[in-house]
Amino acid sequence: WIGPEKGVIHLALGAVVNAVWDLWGKVLGKPVWRIVADMTPEQYVECIDFRYITDAITPEEAVAMLKEVQGGKEKRIEEALSSKAVPAYTTSAGWLGYGQDKMKSLLRETLAQGYKHFKLKVGGSV
């Protein structure tokens, strides 16, 4: 996870940015997902650092794409809110170096918690 332009300072800054989003949500009394969902396409695009992606998409193209799907946004939000669960996965079930018995035990525990998807580390050369 740490590499060129992704050092400890970068990771720490990411934590600060996430904390600011959480604080914004607390101030507004909204979950962060709702703050983002309530943004206009222009406001949303203003939050994106396009420095390294303009060869794939420009801010103007991003705004245009978001405007195209604005019409169905509220319906999609209602559908998500009416759903009983959001698909998720856990990585706690398996890291490199865990033995077979430990893996089985952790997988049983996470299955009992309701997880159906797992991300596992299977080897250093894979």
Automatic annotation (TrEMBL):
Cofactor(s) named in the record: Mg(2+)
Coiled coil, from the record: none
InterPro entries recorded: Enolase-like_C_sf (IPR036849), Enolase-like_N (IPR029017), RHMD-like (IPR046945)
An example Gene Ontology biological process: carbohydrate catabolic process
Keywords: Magnesium, Metal-binding
Gene3D superfamilies reported in the protein's UniProt record: Enolase-like C-terminal domain, Enolase-like, N-terminal domain
Molecular function GO terms recorded: hydro-lyase activity; magnesium ion binding
Protein name as it appears in the record: Mandelate racemase/muconate lactonizing enzyme N-terminal domain-containing protein
